[in-house]
Specification:
With about 240 residues, the protein is an alpha/beta fold. It contains seven helices and twelve strands. It has helices at about 25-35, 65-75, 80-85, 95-100, 200, 205-215, 225-240, and strands at about 5-10, 40-45, 55-60, 90-95, 105, 110-115, 120-135, 150-160, 170-175, 180, 185, 190. It has a six-stranded mixed β-sheet, with helices on both faces. A four-stranded antiparallel β-sheet has the order 8-7-9-10. Bound molecules: glutamine. The site of glutamine has 12 residues, from helix 2 and strand 8.
Length: about 240
């Protein structure tokens, strides 16, 4: 790891990595390379200590039981909480999003304790949310996030944002947090229900995270294959307009 490399920690990819969420780390590496930024990725398995001094922490989604195990291991470890207090950036997807909050439902629907790095609480949706999710960046999203967010959601949780936590987006199609909003932003923490992987479909979010951790504004780099992927997914939702929101 060179002195100036961006230190990225991939948290429990063996436990939390549904729907290609591991691709978020690949997308971050790719975008960093495009911007000429050096990066180094450290994968942490349950039981290994979570480094407290990294720049960016990435957590994926997972099944209910894996989610409870991950939350318990992270709470016991304490490293993520310390990093969050230091102001490190965090990207958390679906189960990862729920477990960085204070509480989420376990496999039997009972409240399980989260890690508590942001003030959000998750309980059950009346019905599982499965399908494409499109959301528009909210007024609280950083100014570099201008494009619609696109992703795939599959979760049973409804997430409620506490004081100081703002919605990342408003739902155009799909369910998101369950109240018309999608995801959360608090300081340098972004939580979202977007799989896809999220950063492959929404490179503006990758660039925002890289911009935070480097304290630089990054130039806009548009890739044709990403434009095509996004257009295909947005068009798919428009054509199958059984809009669920
Ligand atoms: N287990 C959580 C839920 O169903 C998260 C699922 C996921 O990460 N895809 O709400």
């Amino acid at each position: 790891m060179t002195e100036s490399a961006i230190r990225i920690v991939s948290i429990y990819p063996t436990l939390l990595g549904t729907y290609g969420d591991g691709g978020n780390v690949l997308a971050l590496r790719h975008r960093a390379r495009l911007h000429g930024l050096a990066e180094a990725v450290h994968e942490v398995s349950p039981g290994d200590p979570v480094p407290t001094d990294a720049d960016l922490y990435v957590i994926g989604g997972g099944e209910d039981t894996a989610q409870v195990a991950a939350a318990n291991a992270l709470r016991a470890d304490g490293g993520l909480q310390q990093a969050a207090e230091r102001g490190a950036a965090i990207l958390a997807i679906c189960a990862g999003y729920q477990l960085i909050g204070t509480e989420f439902p376990d496999n039997l629907g009972r409240p399980a304790p989260g890690v508590g790095v942001i003030d959000i609480r998750t309980d059950r949706l009346p019905q599982r949310a499965v399908g494409e999710l499109i959301a528009k960046p909210s007024q609280f999203a950083p100014s570099g996030l201008t494009d619609y967010f696109t992703g795939y959601e599959n979760h049973a949780g409804a997430t409620h944002l506490g004081d100081g936590v703002r919605p990342l987006a408003s739902v155009e199609s799909g369910i998101g947090n369950g109240d018309g909003t999608e995801g959360a932003i608090a300081g340098r923490t972004i939580g979202t229900y977007l799989h896809g992987p999220c950063l492959a479909r929404n490179p503006q979010i990758a660039d925002q995270l890289l911009s935070w951790v480097t304290d630089r504004e990054l130039v806009e780099i548009i890739e044709d294959d990403v434009v095509a992927l996004r257009a295909e997914r947005l068009d798919y939702v428009a054509r199958n307009s059984s809009r669920r929101s």
